[in-house]
Amino acid sequence: MIIRSDRLMTIDEVAYYLNLSPRTIYRKIYEGELLAYKVGGVWRMEPQLVYKYSRQNKRTGVIQNG
């Protein structure tokens, strides 16, 4: 998914981009881990901050033997 920097992202778009559930995104907002704004009663997020978060919190796979 390409992030457009000319508009704010919805919770569903952020969840899809980060491969997380919308519920997890809401939790991260309320815990202060992600910054979001309410616009017209709907949460929106800046694409640059979402991209920065994704780079800082890259998941790495773990391979277990056995």
Automatic annotation (TrEMBL):
Pfam families: HTH_17. Residues 8-45 form the Helix-turn-helix domain. SUPFAM superfamilies: Putative DNA-binding domain. GO terms for molecular function: DNA binding. This is Helix-turn-helix domain-containing protein. It comes from Paenibacillus abyssi.
